[in-house]
Amino acid sequence: MRQFNCERDLNFLSAEQRSKLTEYFRSNRREIKPTILRGMLGVSESESYQIILILTAHRLIRGKYLIYHLQHPDDSYASDRLIEDGLPPLPFYCSICCKNIDTYDELDFQISADITERVTFI
Question: What range defines the domain where residue 52 resides?
Answer without folding.
Answer: 2-121
